[in-house]
Amino acid sequence: MDDREPLIDYNQSGLLEARILVVGVGGGGCNAVNTMVREKVAGVEFVAVNTDLQALNRISAQRIQIGGQLSRGLGAGANPEVGRRAAMEDIEKIRSVVKGADMVFVTAGMGGEPEPARHPSSPRWRWRPEP
Asked: What is the pTM of this model?
């Protein structure tokens, strides 16, 4: 057993727990959230956000369908613009879930595109292997 004194003496009973939220967006993000739920990641709340109702029904976390009017419950077809419009259609649903969170982590795929630079919300960088 370690007999050293703690570096800082503090009262742990006064600590508040942070509300940490992981939001999975689209097929890739929702699959990541489902994996985290299955692996029993503790101390985190999970939310899955998708236009695809059938895909959402396979998720074990809280679910939010977005863009129901736009997509009629189908996917966004790997089109980032459809995803953006769907999110704007139901922005209040999304805001109500993240409200009060201390930290929000968003996990998402890149809309089916193999090159991240094609995604409008990603940084404009390119990776090139050394010759």
From this structure: 0.71
